[in-house]
Amino acid sequence: MNPLLRTGAFVIHFRRGSSFTAGEVQGRIEHVASGWSATFESRDEMLRRLGEAFDRIDTTSSDNRTITSSQEN
After folding, report:
1. Whole-angstrom distance, CA of residue 21 vs CA of residue 71
2. Domain residue extents for the chain
3. Residues 18, 23, 26, 27: what is their CA dihedral angle, to the nearest 10 degrees?
4. Where are the beta strands (DSSP E) in the chain?
5. What is the pLDDT of residues 10-35, one digit of tens each?
6. Is the pLDDT of residue 69 over 50?
7. What's the maximum distance between 2 C-alpha atoms anywhere in the chain?
């Protein structure tokens, strides 16, 4: 598998009843390569958490699998 693709892979789980267009979404984001995850309670928080995760991806590691700084589970 191409490390670049693995590094940028995320799974987003939405709770039942979420409405993305209404901004009413709840769920969890998980970074596939590292296992880092964070919950969110709104569309804006989901996008903010995803942005934080992208900022934390450590592209200098040999396997491109780590997210730097504190990890939330």
Report:
1. 29
2. 3-56
3. 90
4. 10-14, 27-31, 37-40
5. 899 999 999 888 878 999 999 888 88
6. no
7. 41
